[in-house]
Amino acid sequence: MILLIALAFLLVEPLVWNPYYNTFLFNTLILCFLFAYLSGAWNILAGFTGQTSFGHAAFFGIGAYTVAMLWTVLGVSPWIGMIIAATIAAFASLAVGLPSLRLKKSYFVMITLGFSEILRITFIQWHEFAGGAGGIAYHVIPYSLEAFQFNTDRTPYYYIMLAMLILSLLVVYKLRRSKWGYYFMAIREDEIATAASGINVIKYKLISCALSAILTALAGVFYVQFFLFIDPDTVFSLDVMTKIFLPTALGGLGTLMGPALGAFILIPLGEIVRIYFSTTFGIQGLHLVVYGIVLILVATVMPKGLVGTVFKRSKRRIGDILSRSAPVGIPQGGLRGLPRPMSSSQRGS
Amino acid sequence: MPEETLLLQGIVSGILMGGIYILISVGLTMIYGVMDLVNFAHGSFLMLGMYSAFWLSFLWGISPYLSLIFVPILFFLIGWVIQKALVQRVVEGGYMLSQFIITFGLWLLIENTAVIFWHHDPRSVFQGAPLTFDIGGIFVTLPMVLAFCITLVLSVFFHLFMTRSWTGLALSATAQNRDSAEIVGMNVRDMFALAMAIGIAMVSVAGVLLATFFPITPYVGLYFLVIAFVVAVLGGLGNYAGAMFGGLIIGFIEGFFGVVLGPQFKQIAYLFVFMAILAVRPQGLMGRREIRGG
C-alpha cells in the first residue's frame, strides 16, 4: 500500500511541481531513479549471485562513452548506440569475468576495480580517442526523440528513468522465481554443492555478470543523454562506483527493494550534503566522507542492510517482498520447479 | 635519443619505480595472506604517508629521509588500532561483502577527508630539478635511486624478519592455517593486528619515499592500489617474496611498454598482465594456496 502511494506520487510529481520550477526535487528524483536502477543491476551480480564487483563504473562508462562517441563522431542515434553499447559492455564483462570468476571472490573484486580504474586512466591519457580528460560535450538539441534529448522541457527524462527503474524491478522480481534466479542464488550460497548438482557454475556466473553489465551500460546511456557531458572522471569515478553499490549494501543485498530503498535514502542525503557544504563552506567531497562512514557502519552494525534487519520476515505480502535478504535459503514462496524431496512414506523401509 | 637508449631508459625508470611497488604490495599481500582481507584502504595510507613526508618537510623542515625513522612507527600504531577497532569485527566469519566494504569505506573516508583539508593541488617535497646522474646515456634521479636502495635494504630486513624471527614465523604460520596456529597457542587476533600494522607501516615508507619524486595529491591512492593488486597477484597473493619479484617485473613491464606502445598505454599493459595471470596461472609466481571456487 505504501508502495502504491509512493508510486502514485512519483508518477505525478513532475506534472504537479515542476511547473513551479522545483527543479531540485525533479533532478534529485531522477538521480534516485538512476542509482536505484544501477544498484539493482549491481545487485543481480553481487546480491543474487554473490560476486562482488567494484568495477561497475566501467560498464556505466562504456555505455556512456559508446553512445557519446557514436553520436558526436558518426551521428548514430543514441537508440541504436544503446544497443551497441550494451553489446560492448556485455563483451567487456565476459572478458573480465572469464579469467576471474573461477577464482575466489577477492580476485574478482580486485580485477573489476582494476579494470575500471585502468579504463579511467587510459581514457584520460588518450586524447585522440575520446577527448581525453576534456571529455565529450554534446551540442544541445532543444527537443528530439530520435536524438534522445529533451531540453526545453526535461520531463521525458523523468518518465524514462522511472520506467527503467520499474522495469528493472520487474526483471529482478521475475528473476528471483526463475530458473536463472535459483541458479544464481545457489551459486551464492554454496558453489561446490551447486556444481555437484550438475549446474555449470561458471556459465551462470558469466550470464549474471553480462546481464548486470548490460543493464548498467543502459544507465550510462541515459546519463550522457541527460547530462549532455561526460569525462573519465565523471563516469569511471569512485563517486559513481560508490553510489552504485552503497544503496544495495545499505538497503539489503540480494533483496528486491533494498537497492531502491537505499538509493532513496542515500542519494538525497548525499546531494543535500554536497550542495550545502560546497556552497556554504566551499568544502568538496564531504558527501563521500558521509558515504564512507555509512559503509563502515553498515559493515560493522548492519551487514544485512535495512531490509534484512529492520523489516523482519513476516507473513504479510509486503513484508514478504521486502524481507528477502541474503543469505536466502529456500525461497519462502516455495520450491516450484525444483525436485521435491521424497516424503518418508516414499522412501521405503 | 636513439631507440635502444630510449627503451633502456624506460626499463631502468620502470625498475626503479618497481621498488616502490614492492613496498606497497608486500604490505597488501601480507594483510591478505594473514587475514584473507583485501585492504582497499591501502592506497589511502600510501597517500597519508606521502602527505606526512610533505607536511613534516614543509612545516618543520624535516627531510623525508629523516622522517623515515618515526613515520613508520606512527603508521604501525595506526594500523594496529584500525585492525583492532574496525577490521577485527568483520574478519572472522561474517559476510564477504562486509569485509570488502569496510576497507572501501575507510578508503572513502580517508581520501575525501584529505581532499577537504589539503585540496587537490599537487604538492612536492623537493622544489626544483632533482639531482640527476647520467650513466651511459641513461638518466636517473637521485631520489629515485635512493628510494630504490632503501627499498632493497628494507626488503632484505623484512625477509630476515619473516624467516628468522619467531614473530615472522608466527605470521607465516597464521597465514598458512589460522586454526592450527591457534591450536598451538599463537594469539591469532594479535597476529591479524600485527599483519595490518606491518602492512600499513610498509606502505607509509613507500609513501615517504614516493613523495621525494612523485607529485602528491589526495588521489594517488587508487592509482597505486591497482598496481599493488597486479603485483600481489602476480607474485601470489599472500606471498611477500613473490610480491618483491612481482614489483620489479611490473616496473619493468610498465617501463618497457610505456616506450614501445606509448605512455597512454602503460596501464593497459598491466591490465593485460593482470588478466593473463588470472587466466593462465592464478596462483601467481609463488603462490601455493587454493584459490579456485568463489
Question: How would you portray this structure in words?
Answer:
The complex is a heterodimer of chains A (349) and B (294). Chain A has 349 residues and is mainly α. Chain A has a single domain (25-331), classed as ABC transporter involved in vitamin B12 uptake, BtuC. Chain A is 70% helix and 2% strand. Chain A contains 17 helices and four strands. Chain A has helices at 2-16, 23-48, 56-74, 78-100, 105-125, 127-130, 155-176, 179-189, 191-196, 201-227, 232-235, 238-251, 258-280, 286-301, 305-309, 317-322, 344-347, and strands at residues 136-137, 143-144, 149-150, 229-230. In chain A, the strands form two sheets. Chain A has a two-stranded antiparallel ribbon. A two-stranded antiparallel ribbon of chain A has the order 2-3. In chain A, helix 12 (238-251) packs across helix 13 (258-280). Chain B is mostly helical. Chain B has one domain (3-280): ABC transporter involved in vitamin B12 uptake, BtuC. Helix content of chain B is 73%, strand content 3%. Chain B has twelve helices and two strands; from the N terminus they run H-H-H-H-H-E-E-H-H-H-H-H-H-H. Chain B has helices spanning 3-35, 42-60, 64-67, 71-91, 96-118, 142-164, 166-176, 178-183, 188-211, 220-235, 240-260, 266-280; strands at 132-135, 138-141. Chain B has a two-stranded antiparallel sheet with strand order 1-2. At the A-B interface, helix 4, helix 5, helix 12 and helix 14 of A face helix 4, helix 5, helix 10 and helix 12 of B.
Output the keywords.
heterodimer; A: 349 residues; mainly alpha; ABC transporter involved in vitamin B12 uptake, BtuC; two-stranded antiparallel ribbon; 17 helices; 4 strands; globular; disordered C terminus; B: 294 residues; two-stranded antiparallel sheet
In the residues of chain A, how many domains can be counted? 1
CATH fold annotation of chain A: ABC transporter involved in vitamin B12 uptake, BtuC
In terms of structural class, how would the helical and strand content of chain A be classed?
Answer: mainly alpha
CATH topology value of chain B: ABC transporter involved in vitamin B12 uptake, BtuC
What order do the SSEs of chain A take from the amino end to the carboxyl end, as H and E?
Answer: HHHHHHEEEHHHHEHHHHHHH
Oligomerization status of the protein chains: heterodimer
Count of all domains of chain B = 1
Rg over CA atoms of chain A: 21 Å
Individual helix count of chain B: 12
Distance between the termini of chain A: 51 Å
Q: Supply the number of helical segments of chain A.
A: 17
